[in-house]
Amino acid sequence: MYLFYTPEIVGSKEEVGKTYCLDAEESGHCVRVLRYDRGDEILLTNGQGMTYTAEITNPNPKRCEFRVLTAERQAKHHSNYIHIALAPTKNIERVEWFVEKCTEIGVDEITLLSCRFSERKQLRLDRLQKIILSAAKQSLTPYLPKLNELTDCAEFIRGAKEETRFIAHCYKEDKRELRSELVPGKSVVVMIGPEGDFSEQEIAAALEHGFVPVSLGESRLRTETAGIVACHICNLFS
């Protein structure tokens, strides 16, 4: 079954029996592309963990109306709050791939970092938001991760509030394995640097603010691959 996105539904079981409409884009996809008709059942999410089954009452391709039949809160597949902070690559397609795959795997928050050696200083957040939504619907994920705008690395380090904080870099120094440092149930943030890595000053600042240097494995990974690996490890060992 296809998953439709309906942010207007903000309640829980109290929504059963109420009537709502899909927006124009979702309505067109539902009625014109997928050929859903009056009386057909559809699956919806508000992106905040709720899923709803509903019956189409008016298959208008611009304003498809439906009546909520059931409401259910879905449990997350991971026990901790996962936040990946990554410096975007020069090639925007690799950034988009990272955002898409982390959404499919399971991530709660994504921050894009502006670092000393960053090669990309501008991003279209609206396009990345659409990729997140598409990936969530494709993977039937009822939780949409929060996407933050491009943030200065030093500012991000100072403001990090997660219970466990990690920075992955390629400098030759003692680093711990990320998987061995994760604590189930505790919020976690992992910082991934640009293709030129973090500067020594950025690493020093992170350590001063409680970040632990970690390794993601034996191979030297591309930035976007490192972000996905970090997300996957956090899901597996949370």
Structure description:
The protein has 238 residues and is of the alpha/beta class. The protein contains 7 helices and 12 strands. Strands 8-7-6-11-9-12-10 form a 7-stranded parallel β-sheet, with helices on both faces. The longest helix has 14 residues, at 92-105. It is elongated and about 65 Å long.
Cα-based radius of gyration, to the nearest Å: 20 Å
Major beta-sheet overview:
7 strands, parallel
CATH architecture type of the largest domain: 3-Layer(aba) Sandwich
Number of helices: 7
- Measured distance between first and last alpha carbons: 29 Å
Mean pLDDT comes to 93
The quaternary structure here is: single chain
Class of secondary structure makeup: alpha/beta
- Strand line-up in the sheet with most strands: 8-7-6-11-9-12-10
Shape: elongated
Query: Can you write the helix and strand succession as a string?
Result: EEHEEEEHEHEHEEHEHEH
Q: Within the CATH hierarchy, at the fold level, what is the topology of the largest domain?
A: Alpha/beta knot
Any idea of the CATH class of the largest domain?
A: Alpha Beta
Q: Kindly state the number of beta strands.
A: 12
Share in β-strands:
25-35%
Report the helical percentage. 25-40%
Considering the protein shown, what is the CATH homologous superfamily of the largest domain? SPOUT methyltransferase, trefoil knot domain
Q: Which parts are unreliable, with pLDDT below 50 for 5 consecutive residues or more?
A: none
Integer tally of domains = 2
